[in-house]
Amino acid sequence: MRRVWVALALTAGVLLAGEVTEATASTPLSGAEGTAASLAPSPAALSAPQAIALALFRHETPAIAAARIRAAEAQRQRAAAALRPSVRLQGSLSTSDRDEVPHGGDAHETAAWGAAAEIALLRASAWSGLAAARYALQAQQLEGAEMRRALAYSVAALYLDALAAERQVVAAENRLAVARAAVADAQARLDAGLAVRTDVIRAELEAATAQLALTRARNYTANLRLALEDLIVQPLGGALAEPPTIEIPDPAIDTLHRLALYYRGDLKALQLREAAAEQRRRAGYGRWVPDVVARAEASAYDTNDPLRAAGDKTTVVTLSLVATWTLYDGGDREGAIAEAEAQRRELGLERTRQLRALRKDLQTALADLGTAEAALQQAEARARLARANADEVRARYKQGLATALEDADAISARFEADSGLVAAQLALSRARLQVRRLVGLWPFSEREPLNAP
Hints:
The chain is of the alpha+beta class. The protein has a single domain, classed as Outer membrane efflux proteins (OEP), CATH 1.20.1600.10. The chain is 67% helix and 11% strand. The chain has twelve helices and four strands; from the N terminus they run αααααβαβααααββαα. It has helices spanning 2-11, 17-25, 30-38, 48-58, 60-81, 102-105, 124-191, 197-232, 253-263, 265-286, 332-398, 404-439, and strands spanning 86-96, 108-122, 291-303, 313-324. It has a four-stranded antiparallel sheet with strand order 1-2-3-4, with no helix packed on it. α9 (253-263) packs across α11 (332-398). It is elongated.
């Protein structure tokens, strides 16, 4: 559990830039202020919508979704082929050499060719199969869009984590700078005979602790940036820009529920998958109906065999209506019906479960949002108190009215309060993103961002 809280402290808070700047300003060290300024987003910094657009353009997930859609289109095309005319052309050329043939038994050739075209007039299973393929294609298109949206939320979450980690690095650098100044002050007081050796050791311990926290924050930031680079498939050249405001719709549960039913492609895809399974079940029953096919055939026969009529050439054109009724196929028809029925029932139950869970998830997300807002207010008050206390203890320590232990504790408490503020701000941002994700919106906009060039 402690590791989880440490990770939250290191990854939190998107909106800490102003808070960190305020914390830095209250620190009597210009070097810390320079560090904060160096990490401020530059005009060319990568923005969150740009990162999402890059991921949608470069990552393999959208290509996988597109490939699945092409496969569904191919299945629909194959299903439609059963209802379209088919044309066949065949030919043969044979030769014979028989002793009983007069004039020395010369070889004789026989040529034949034929062409046939047919079209289904009644094929009940094919119509249902085509309807099933169309539903499956529509479902795959919606699922492909959901895959892209899920990738966008993965990028958004990593972007916020990486940005918060960068702000945490600034806070850790400020803590280290103050701790080193405290070591210098303690050493000066020891040299002047105003302090004991343990005061210096205590200040050095706080500086070492601050150095460890900074190292961890930098390493964690580097790992988050690497993970973000993996999603956008390109190196991060510089700092990250502040993300847009994460807006949420009307927080009324009924409004959010209606919006989710309208926007959520995965819920619509389940309904279409269920309809496709129903059509496959009907296709199984359709195999009990005879297939009726209209067929046209033309054939020609030509030979120079003298045993046949001289110049024997025959051309035949046949028009026919063929009905085929399969009375027993070994149980394949019944198995197909049972399989489609089971799939339809499974998909229907899954859709019912997700619709029931949707309202619960929305209520949980709204409760988490309210908790995050209250936690942010508490964290802001705690951070203000910790900063004021740290400044007061620092001033008293310089006047010899506070011990080195009190000074170190105040520095540590201030850093912990700043980290808690970062965690609270990230929790609020994530709570807002969760509401948007459940409703079916994109992370920072109503529509999918344009692909990067």
